[in-house]
Amino acid sequence: MREGISNLPDPEPFSGEVEIDESYFGKKKTGQGRAGTVQGQVAVFGLRERKSGRVIACVVAGVSAKHLIPLIEKHVLKGSTIYSDGFGAYYHLGKLGYHHRVVYHEYTFVDQHKVHTNGIESFWAYTKHLLSTRKGLSYKSYPKHIKEAQKRHNTFSNKKLRLLLRRILQNND
User: Fold this and answer.
1) Has domain 12-138 been given CATH number 3.30.420.10?
2) Residue 70 DSSP SS3
3) Separation between Cα atoms, residue 65 and residue 89, nearest integer Å
4) Are strands 99-103 and 17-26 parallel, antiparallel or unpaired?
5) Tens digit of each residue's pLDDT (9 = 90 or more) over 126-142
6) What are the sequence ranges of the domains in the chain?
């Protein structure tokens, strides 16, 4: 079933106001390596369109600009307003045709001009809660589980989700 879900297309590119963020899933920080590293964890990048509430999330090989900028350009139309935290990979979004607004989490989580990433952060909390019951996920299985969380989130009602799953199962027969 997860295979069928992961093969479904992502939503059309987002426009308007879009929140972006990266998160890490899997094992907790081990304390090994340099401070602040996330060894043993899976990097995931997400985008959330504020108007519709829809999300796109995917496992990424890294969280540098070379990994994230192509995903942003694929999933967000130029001229849109992108809200992010102060992560350095997002630094040049303004030069790429986006209106870029930044909230610096060292100082605040929401500024007075509705600059925040609370929507995508809420999706991370939802996904981590969903996956917390699935102990011992392998690194290779995360892309399918992340796409399942995305589809569950984007098909808000249980009825829509049941219809989607029924269609997937019928196509696999």
Assistant:
1) yes
2) helix
3) 4
4) unpaired
5) 999 989 888 778 889 99
6) 12-138
